[in-house]
Amino acid sequence: MVEANNTTVTLQVHRFTPRPERAERARGGSPFAKKSSPFGGGSDSAARRRPRGKQWVQEYTIPARPSDTVLDCLLTIKRTIDPTLAFRYSCGHGMCGSDAAAINGTPTLLCTATVRDWAKQPSTAPEVDDEGFRRTGDETANEPDVPAENVENNIPEGSLGVIELASLPGFPPQRDLIADIDPMLNQIRKLTPYLQADGVLVTTAEGKVDVFEYLQNPEQLAKYETLSNCIACGVCEGACPVYAGGDAFVGPAALIWASRFINDSRDTKAMDRMDAIDTADGVAGCQSVRACSRHCPRGIDVGEEMWQIVAKVRER
Ligand code: SF4
Ligand code: FES
Q1: How far is residue 275 from each of residues 258, 278, 314, measured CA to CA in Å?
Q2: Which residue, judged by its Cα, is nearest atom 8 of ligand 1?
Q3: In which domain, by residue range, is 93 found?
Q4: Which of 109, 181, 229 gets mutated to test ligand 2 (max ligand atoms within 8 A of its CB)?
Q5: pTM exceeding the 0.90 threshold for the entire prediction
Q6: Choosing a second label site near 77 at 20 to 30 A (CA), which of 180, 189, 225, 227?
Q7: What's the confidence (pLDDT) of residue 126?
Q8: What distance in angstroms lies between residue 80's CA and the mean position of ligand 2's atoms?
Q9: Ligand nearest to the CA of 171
């Protein structure tokens, strides 16, 4: 069925423009500050993770269908309304992991999130409860206290609702919806995310060495196959309340990559890999909150995998 396109959606985008480096220096910032500061000193330091700049929320109302993705909506805005809006994407269908962001506060991929699933109707319910606590999503989901006519009066005709967008939590924003995911990539890189195996040389009919052969049966493959689907999008890190930049905890994505090779029967460095994550900021940093499991776009049960790798490291 072809959907009529006389509906709209409103995107509330948390925008960010970093302060230019020159202006930072002109304001008296010392080029030696990083070295002398107890919070500085590394490329992933806390000081670097909190870039300064201008922040504001910008609202765009555009024509949209329920089946459009949030990425479709952002592309419409970029092409027809505001070319300055910055966001990152590549494949457009959940394969590259480059467009992770927070939609209505939940880390997910912009290209697989649809307007139908994420547009919220405005609520007239108070944001804090009687005791002064901020109401959670679960509490507001089934709220009987909002008279239907009040909500209807708030919605412009044809509006599918409002979607709130921000850059991926847990990472420093670079510009608008683009987060700096280098801290995660550096953590993954430190754990040597490639196969280290002793292959068997195969000879050709003439007796010359041809290629390395890495033999494995289906049962051995099944032990890490799901883990190899990780696209390093950072969604699990954005959902993890402990990660927050990777200083105290390497993060679920890095541990998934370590686990992928530890479980690979061909890899000869499993013990070294386990030593590398058997640290205070490694497996010991995981608090088993399991927030990481709920959002993985590649279907990895990250929390369960964390549990398994922690047990494996401790039992060795
Ligand atoms: S485990 Fe899932 S959520 Fe985490 S980085 Fe990999 S693909 Fe993304
Ligand atoms: S653009 Fe590649 S995963 Fe979304």
Answers
A1: 11, 5, 10
A2: 233
A3: 8-175
A4: 109
A5: no
A6: 180
A7: 56
A8: 22
A9: 1
